[in-house]
Amino acid sequence: IKGITYSPTKIGQSPDKGTLVSWMYEDTNKNGKADGPYDSWVDKNRNNEQDPDEPAVGDFQLLKEMGINTIREYYQPFKPNKAVLRDMYGRYGIRVIMGNFLGKYTFGSGASWFQGTDYENPEHQKNMLESVRQMVMDLKDEPYILLWALGNENNYGVASNANKKPVAYFKFVNEVAKLIKSIDPNHPVAVCNGDTLFLDIFAKYCPDVDIFAANVYRGDYGFGSFWEQVRDAAGKPAFITEYGCPAFARHMSLAEAEEAQAGYHRGNWIDIEENMAGRKDGAGNALGGCSFEWI
């Protein structure tokens, strides 16, 4: 997985203000093509305008040129545009890790933000299972689907009680994995954890989850003992659903900031490569990673 979280949000759009829209459908110039994937350009002189010598390239082409083969997306809150994703795969060879928030930020559970998703609440469970079922039924035969990812560091909490009731949460994750496999036996299922918090509980209660994936930010040296921890505790393959750092730093010049970002990403990717199967000294269970983020 040479992946990235792709979310080309325009300046001024915000989920908090209710102004966020789906990049798969946004067509500001009304030319029948999604803006980000097809109409973006490289602003070589950084004047924030498209000049005559800056033709439209499109993000999909830029992603392909940088070596990306996978993007990470969520089924919520906007239903995917299948035509756009089919074109992305067919013309650019990029596949999709499709996620369901599984109650994070209350997506799919039906809970209010202040109530939060309760993983012991039968009604919340029913709603989330139905949300996952709809996603898998809708997309299981799409050629661009690589795997299913459940949650987004739900174990940290935030409008859910997964951090307070981790056993209930991971038991439910396994129930969801079994549901997915009953509908779609052809794609693996991963959990998207926050680092290795509650890894021991995952290992005990999630035998039907194929992959342990996590958002991990530990520094420019890589991920430390992450790979060995997952191998020894759970015996599962693993990948990083989020890693990286921004190129914006007030205390640095643009050149210094971009080199610092490049160094961070370089160190992280070297660590991923060293722990893939077939390497002599690594853990042998790394499947790749998704940098965070294209925005």
Describe the structure.
The structure is a single chain. By secondary structure, the chain is α/β, with parallel strands linked by helices. 33% of the residues lie in helices and 16% in strands. The protein is built from eight helices and eight strands. The chain has helices at residues 35-39, 59-65, 82-92, 122-139, 166-183, 199-205, 226-234, 254-274, and strands at residues 2-6, 70-74, 95-100, 145-150, 189-194, 211-215, 238-243, 286-294. The chain has an eight-stranded parallel beta barrel with strand order 1-2-3-4-5-6-7-8, surrounded by five helices. Helix 6 packs parallel to helix 7 (226-234). The longest helix has 21 residues, at 254-274. The relative contact order is 0.12.
